[in-house]
Write a structure and sequence with these properties.
Order of helices and strands: HEEEEEHEEEEEEE
Helix content: 10-25%
Strand content: 35-45%
Structural class: alpha+beta
Largest sheet: 5 strands, mixed
Radius of gyration: 21 Å
C-alpha cells in the first residue's frame, strides 16, 4: 500500500512539474508588445512612444518601435483607439486592415515594402519569424483581426531590423475603393544566438 502511495505522489509531482513548465513556457512565449494608434484628421497616428516595447536601442527609432529581446518570442498587438469616424468622401469608419514588413536591415524607411529584392536566405529568416503571407508586398499573416485590433506573432529566431507598416482603411458608402492611411515604424529582433 505504501508503494502505491509513493508512486501516486511521484506521479502527481511529475504532472505538477510538467504543468508548471508548460504554463511558464507559454507565458514567456507570449511576451506581448502593444502599439496603440488613433485617427487624427483622417491620418493614422501612433500614440505608443519610442521608449516603450523594450525600446530604446541605439539606432534611430520612432514612436511605435518594437524590440523583441534575445531568446524571447512575442505576440505583437496593434490597437486602434478613440474615435474612428472617417470624414473623407463617403467614408464610414476607419478599421485596421493589415500589417506589412519590408526594409530588411535598412537604416531608413523603405520606399516600397515587401521582400522582392531581398536575398532568399534573408527572406527565409523573416518568413520563419513572422509568417509572411505574400513576399512581394510583405503582408504578414495575422493571428487575430478585428476592426480595432490586429495581432501578429514573432518567433524571433534571427537577429535583424525590419520596418513594419500598419494599414487602416475607411470603407465608402458609394462602393468606390476604400480610403487608406498607413504608419511605418521599425521592429528589431534579438534572435536566439
Amino acid at each position: 500500500m505504501r508503494e502505491k502511495s509513493s508512486i501516486s505522489r511521484l506521479t502527481k509531482s511529475v504532472l505538477t512539474f510538467i504543468c508548471a513548465v508548460t504554463v511558464t513556457t507559454t507565458a514567456s512565449a507570449k511576451n506581448p508588445k502593444e502599439v496603440k494608434m488613433t485617427i487624427v484628421d483622417d491620418q493614422l497616428v501612433i500614440t505608443t512612444s519610442k521608449n516603450e516595447n523594450d525600446c530604446p536601442w541605439y539606432e534611430k527609432r520612432e514612436a511605435g518601435c518594437i524590440k523583441v529581446k534575445r531568446n524571447e518570442k512575442s505576440e505583437i498587438y496593434f490597437h486602434l483607439t478613440g474615435d474612428t469616424k472617417c470624414d473623407l468622401e463617403n467614408g464610414t469608419d476607419w478599421e485596421l486592415n493589415a500589417v506589412y514588413l519590408g526594409g530588411y536591415n535598412f537604416d531608413d524607411k523603405p520606399s516600397k515594402f515587401g521582400f522582392s529584392s531581398t536575398s532568399d536566405a534573408d527572406y527565409d529568416k523573416v518568413n520563419k519569424d513572422y509568417n509572411i503571407a505574400d513576399r512581394t508586398s510583405g503582408l504578414v499573416t495575422t493571428t487575430e483581426k478585428t476592426s480595432k485590433k490586429l495581432a501578429i506573432y514573432d518567433e524571433n529566431l534571427h537577429e535583424y531590423l525590419v520596418w513594419y507598416k500598419i494599414e487602416a482603411i475607411c470603407k465608402r458608402t458609394d462602393g468606390q475603393p476604400a480610403h487608406i492611411t498607413t504608419s511605418d515604424p521599425r521592429a528589431k529582433n534579438g534572435g536566439t544566438g
